[in-house]
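Mods, move this if it's the wrong board.
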Amino acid sequence: MAKAKSHLPEGIRSVTPHLVVKNALDSIEFYKKAFGAQLLSQAPGPTPRSTMHAAIKIGDGVIFLADEMGMSHVKSPKNLGGTTTSIMLFVPDVDATFKTAVSAGAKVNMPVADQFWGDRYGQVEDPFGHQWSLATHKQDLTQDQIAANAKAFFANMGKKSTPEMATA
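Not the wrong board. Structure tokens:
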């Protein structure tokens, strides 16, 4: 057995999201269709079609997945009736990725629009209850520019008829 070269496994970052879902095998297939995910590994769980651990790669990041297990305190968003996190995914063409995700079965939470902080951005919920914030960075803005844009946006928020957070 060889000693590890690093405290991190190869290809893994210091912070790696770990999603708990109901039906990891189906979620892997969804992430392949919606975001072009590649399956890196999958370890079966104790029951048929269950997954104890899987790793997928989306872009240059890795996400771990597992089925909800009765002995764990971590529950899937579907079991909880919501989630407290959102996964931020930067892509070259947010409009195309958003459309692909929705076509694959994601629910639109916020349509794609240009945002006051310089990104073209939208939100979807995957069929397993996880929230995905999708974006393409369009403008490099200073903190002062973002603050001024935010002030204008919030001043006009009640005047706009759409939920989009478009550049003010």
